[in-house]
Each structure stands twice: as C-alpha cells, then as structure tokens.
Amino acid sequence: MNTQAEIEVPAPPLRAQAAGGGLQGILGSPLFFLVAMLLLMWALLIRPQQKKEKELKAMLAQVEKGDAVITTGGLHGKVTGVADDVLTVEIAPNVRVKLSRAAIATRSAGKAEGEKS
C-alpha cells in the first residue's frame, strides 16, 4: 500500500495573477498619488516663488545712484548713495534715510517721482 497520496492543486485563475501588476497596479498605488501630489505642489507653489525671489535678487543687485525706488514700507524716494548693502535714499528735499538694500520693493531707473527736469 502506498502511504503517500498525491494531491493535485489546481492553478489559480489568470485574473487573480494579473490584478497585482501592470499599469492598473501602479496607478492604484498610494505611492503614485504621493509623488503626483508632490510634483503638483512643486509646480504650482514652490517653482513660482523661487522664480520671484530670483527676479527680486537681480533687481536689488542693479539698484544704483539716481534710481527712483519704493521701499517695502511704502516710502518713495531717490537713491543718493550706495554702499554694499546700505542705500541712502532721499525721501524729501534734504531728508535722507539709510536703508538696507533688502528694504527696496521696486526700482525704476532714472528720475524720481515728482522731480522736474
């Protein structure tokens, strides 16, 4: 008598094997959505902010004597002196203030507002 019985195990259906892989498995993965959200956040929030900061740095580096500027506090004036990161700005006749270069919000080359030629 044979003590070992051979049992035949049927193969699993093909549908069950294919469900775990392929494109459908990747798109349903939480990792895919995490990566997609990070890319979307970078494209909509981080990249535009980096571009704006780069433009501001370039503008601040170009400020020179005689430029009309507006400070972050809203003061309008004309740059009368430049020394490294400190600018002397005339905000009224014979009224000059020293400002950090970082305090400049906008710049326009040439004459200050209200100045006659």
List the helices and strands and how they pair.
Elements: H1 14-18, H2 22-27, H3 30-61, E1 68-71, E2 76-83, E3 86-92, E4 95-100, E5 104-108
Antiparallel strand pairs: 1-2, 1-5, 2-3, 3-4
Overview of this protein structure:
- Helices cover about 35% and strands about 25% of the residues.
- It is an alpha+beta fold and about 120 residues long.
- It starts with 13 loop residues before the first helix and ends in a 9-residue tail after the last strand.
- About 10% of the residues are buried.
The share of residues in extended strands comes to: 25-35%
Order of helices and strands: HHHEEEEE
Uncertain segments of ≥5 residues (pLDDT<50)? none
Total strands: the figure is 5
Structural class: alpha+beta
Tell me the quaternary state. single chain
Short description:
The protein has helices at residues 14-18, 22-27, 30-61, and strands at residues 68-71, 76-83, 86-92, 95-100, 104-108. With 117 residues, it is of the alpha+beta class.
Q: Which terms would index this structure?
A:
rod-shaped; five-stranded antiparallel β-sheet; 37% helix; alpha+beta; 117 residues
